[in-house]
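step=encode ok
step=design start
structure_in=
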């Protein structure tokens, strides 16, 4: 019997490395990466009414209202690819009401990864972050510089990646994080996210392998 696919949540302050770890997890485990921030940026780019409202909140470092974000994530999670291959939910839920909305649907992860990074490092990571619009890969001018000049010349920066805005995003994070953790307290895997990304991934990889082992053990026994 094929074991049930993995269901993983990843959380942490702005620029703690969620997207970076998701790239690595996705590559090894083939999970469907669902990023609330990416879904919202796509909505902003398409210029819809919801996109306009989302952008107003994102520019202030505030959470986008539930009536926009909850449905958006729920619909993506319930798509066949995520149900068949497993999912990796990035930056969601970010408030007690979002967590409760998932609980009501009996959607719970196998593991809740929490990246723990010092505040000084977060600011440096935000200011140096760059994105490749072609491959969608995440770079950092100092820690993950682009491989060549061609890539370097096309890199872009996010509209909310300034020191001033990340401070507002951090405040929002601090206001909500404890309430979300309380919902998943028996599933939390806290990782020191200050280390280089490969080391952070080694820890996460170990935890995901044991969850998979446990799941296949339980399935074959039943
Ligand atoms: P979102 O896009 O989710 O942003 P965020 O939580 O602020 O997180 P980031 O994407 O900035 O960072 P990350 O943790 O993915 O770090 P990354 O890997 O890129 O949300 C944006 C906005 O959308 C929110 O402010 C809110 O308005 C709205 N929103 C989103 N979700 C919502 C929700 N659920 N409800 C309501 N509103 C919502 O890494 C950062 C940099 O550091 C990169 O340059 C990277 O190369 C570098 N780096 C990564 N790891 C390391 C390492 N180990 N060592 C050195 N450098 C590293």
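sequence_out=
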């Amino acid at each position: 019997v094929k074991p049930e696919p993995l269901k993983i949540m990843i959380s942490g302050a702005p620029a703690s490395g969620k997207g970076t770890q998701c790239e690595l997890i996705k590559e090894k485990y083939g999970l469907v990466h669902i990023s609330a921030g990416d879904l919202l940026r796509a909505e902003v780019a398409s210029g819809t009414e919801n996109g306009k409202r989302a952008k107003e909140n994102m520019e202030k470092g505030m959470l986008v209202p539930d009536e926009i974000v909850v449905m958006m994530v729920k619909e993506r999670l319930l798509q066949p690819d995520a149900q068949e291959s497993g999912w990796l939910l990035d930056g969601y839920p970010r408030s007690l009401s979002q967590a409760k909305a998932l609980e009501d649907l009996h959607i719970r992860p196998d593991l809740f990864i929490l990246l723990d990074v010092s505040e000084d490092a977060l600011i440096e990571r935000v200011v140096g972050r760059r994105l490749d619009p072609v491959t969608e890969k995440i770079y950092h001018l100092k820690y993950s510089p682009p491989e060549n000049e061609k890539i370097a010349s096309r890199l872009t920066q996010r509209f909310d990646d300034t020191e001033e805005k990340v401070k507002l995003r951090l405040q929002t994070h601090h206001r909500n994080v404890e309430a979300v953790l309380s919902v998943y307290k028996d599933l939390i895997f806290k990782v020191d996210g200050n280390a280089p990304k490969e080391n952070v991934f080694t820890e996460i990889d170990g935890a995901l392998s044991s969850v998979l082992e446990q799941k296949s053990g339980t399935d074959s026994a039943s």
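step=design ok
step=annotate ok -> The domain at 7-118+176-205 is CATH 3.40.50.300 (Rossmann fold).
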